[in-house]
Design brief:
single chain; mainly alpha; two-stranded antiparallel ribbon; 546 residues
Length: 546
């Protein structure tokens, strides 16, 4: 059974475990500082994001809005004739999800998220957004709009610790989700047959599990309740795609129920100019999960049909709590949980009223979370794995911002490798998202993990002769508080930075013997060998665990 009682004391190893599982890793120095705090207070601050200094991060993000027309750029930002492109790949060249993300570049959108994950001081919020992105999996290949995809990711960032019913409703009203699962086509007015895609998936994939407490009649009735749930687009949010000026796209959207009322934004979801919303919402009473709802007369403050959606975690609390418990366990604790573990975590979720903030605080302070058997018990997903490596080996935000050439990581140069490594960020192949743990690694995906590792640790793809043009600019000497006196010192420091699972000494001895077969010197050659050792650690079987 899962012992969910809180720990009363902890060690540096415990704090490092929290940093890996509930963030994107911590430096040894940050681990020591965290471990010096009382665990309950430290975890609460970690979950709530209190005590973090966002001043520099917010300033950097505000300063890096991409305002250069896409047509002015060339494929190679360093090529002769490139217009207004910095010599070094930087956030203001490629990355930020600011006012110009409507440029419709998936790689740029992926890069903006990776950049935020690497430098966001409130790491847990980004980790939770990534968790919910997998659960409420929505794909660019159908939504066909990066601005709306990033709007959904911001929803997860801002509401990922709300009560689950609030989050479920917010996602159901989200424009990207409305396109992804055809809510925009759900017309049940009059005798029209409703589109059931979203109603089915909201129970099967997002709240209860397959055939778990509902039937086909419930799907049909919920589809009627949610009919007409769509969005409108203000005229100012309709922009041309620079790659194809004849194509217009929405850079934002506002939730509306298409019920025949006036359209305050003037344009419907498909960008057609309509002063009145189409009539698509059903009327009358439905029976859903054994309860009756008047879908035309919602309670105050709710959209028509919303009370039916909100009833899922209430009328099916047992099924919904077990569904969430399983997802939380596989992502944060272990995929090899027992039925008793699942029951205990589900009961905790119910007892806390599906309040995800309280649920995560409870889970992340529990003896169960810190049990030795749950350390390095999961294979890490490729996005968080790459971000964690970049956090460990890349320059700090302050150090990067202080460079004359703004030496930030060029995530846009490697974001495509996320797909090849098994997780195409913002574009899962279907609404069931990605399977986790051991499914992340196979002979093919490891090839591309090794390429990500090469970019981060070795600076692969750098322009010759300029350390500031590494894909992930780093200062090897800066990895070490004091110059290492031996190869063993190099290994010890890199292990504390990268935090792989336990590596057999026979393996590490062989690495050191191959890299330093004779004498040790901390010179340029020695620093290159340190990069190679970091690469070996990242590519090792133990390096995939967290």
């Amino acid at each position: 059974m899962a012992d969910l009682t809180p720990i009363s004391s902890w060690t540096a190893a415990d704090a490092a475990h929290l940093g890996r599982r509930a963030g994107f890793g911590l430096s040894p120095e940050a681990v020591a500082a965290l471990a010096a705090q009382a665990p309950a207070a430290a975890v609460t601050a970690w979950v709530d994001g209190t005590g973090v200094d966002r001043t520099l991060f917010d300033a950097v993000m505000a300063d890096r809005a991409d305002v250069v027309p896409l047509s002015a750029r060339t494929a190679n930002p360093n090529a002769p004739g490139a217009v207004n492109v910095p010599a070094v790949p930087a956030p203001h060249a490629f990355l930020v999800d600011g006012p110009h993300t409507w440029r419709h570049d998936l790689t740029r959108a992926q890069a903006s998220l990776a950049f935020r994950m690497q430098y966001e001081p409130y790491a847990f919020r980004e980790r939770m957004a990534l968790f919910w992105h997998n659960l409420f999996a929505t794909g660019f290949h159908k939504v066909n709009n990066t601005a709306l995809m990033l709007k959904q990711f911001r929803l997860f960032r801002e509401h990922g610790l709300d009560r689950f019913d609030d989050l479920l409703v917010a996602v159901s009203k989200d424009p990207a989700m409305a396109i992804w699962l055809d809510s925009v086509q759900n017309n049940a007015s009059g005798t029209n047959v409703p589109n059931e895609n979203y109603a089915r998936e909201v129970m099967e994939l997002y709240s209860l599990g397959v055939d778990n407490g509902y039937d086909q009649q419930d799907i049909t009735q919920l589809a009627r309740a949610l009919s007409g749930w769509s969005f409108t687009v203000p005229a100012a949010s309709i922009v041309a795609d620079p790659t194809n000026p004849a194509t217009k796209r929405a850079s934002d959207g506002n939730f509306r129920v298409y019920d025949g009322s006036a359209n305050p934004d003037g344009h419907v979801w498909s960008l057609g100019a309509n002063t009145t919303l189409p009539r698509m919402h059903a009327s009358g009473t439905i029976t859903f999960l054994g309860q009756s709802f008047d879908v035309g007369s919602p309670p105050a403050g709710m959209a028509p049909g919303e009370n039916a959606l909100r009833s899922i975690p209430v009328s099916r609390a047992s099924q919904c709590s077990r569904f969430l418990a399983q997802r939380l366990l596989v992502h944060f604790v272990s995929a090899r949980f027992t039925s008793a573990d699942l029951a205990d975590v589900a009961a905790m979720i119910q007892s806390n009223g599906f309040d995800m903030r309280v649920v995560l605080r409870t889970l992340l302070t529990s003896r169960f979370f810190y049990a030795a058997s749950n350390r390095f018990a999961l294979v890490e997903g490729p996005v968080s794995w790459a971000v964690r490596a970049a956090r460990a080996l890349g320059r700090s935000l302050a150090a990067a911002d202080a460079l004359p050439t703004k030496g930030f990581p060029a995530w846009s140069s490697v974001a495509a490798s996320f797909d090849q490594a098994g997780m195409r960020l913002l574009d899962p192949s279907g609404p069931n998202g990605w399977k986790e743990d051991v499914v992340w690694v196979n002979s093919n995906t490891m090839r591309f993990r090794s390429r990500l590792a090469a970019a981060i640790a070795l600076g692969a793809g750098a322009t010759a002769g300029s350390s500031d043009q590494l894909l992930f600019p780093s200062d090897v000497a800066g990895w070490f508080p004091t110059a290492p006196a031996s190869a063993t010192d190099v290994l010890a420091r890199l292990v504390s930075l990268l935090q792989p699972g336990p590596v057999p000494s026979t393996v590490t001895d062989a690495w050191l013997a191959a890299l330093w077969p004779s004498s040790f010197a901390w010179d340029a050659t020695g620093q290159t060998k340190a990069r190679e050792l970091a690469y070996l650690l990242l590519c090792s079987p133990a390096g995939q665990l967290y």
